[in-house]
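As a next step, the fold was encoded as tokens, giving this record:
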Amino acid sequence: MIAGTARGIRLEAASAGTRPLSDRVKQSLFASLEAEGALTDGFLDLYAGTGAAGIEALSRGADRATFVEHDAKACSLIAANVKRARVDGWQVVRDDVLRYLAKGLAAAQRPYRAAISDPPYDTALLAPTLELLGDVQHRWLADGAVVVAKHFWRAAFEAQVGGLTLERQRRFGETMVSFYRQTGTTTPGSRPEENAERT
């Protein structure tokens, strides 16, 4: 972990073939989320892998985190890593992410203030994930919530995806981190390349 109550704790690594968040990327995106107060409420970790993103959010003050992952071994790994980090307020959901999001948030649950979507680069899952996540009818996100999309830097996405508006991007080698805001509107935004930064 980079910062917070679990700082310095090493998580169990994922199997070969996965692309976990590097410390460099993690530090940058979580510093940004902290700066705008996006870690004061729930955090949704989609395609959670090792659970590193959600655990970092809990370590930095998020009151709860939900990890969604379809692979059974990965779910067990996430649970082990959360326990190792000694953080509270978490749940691991074993489900297909698109199917899970399509159900919508239960009426009794509070929407999330921040989310990350990090599907495998060789899939076409990110765009439909953002569409479902940003759909105000599904209630996943609080007003003004931030969604971080991690993807291959050459992948092109619209500046407006459903109720999400692209605000900025940062490139780390072959990885691009795109920051979206829940606006609940469908008005066009600026082109992604106009806000891109390279690191």
Q: What stands out?
A: Residues 160 and 188 are 6 Å apart (CA to CA).
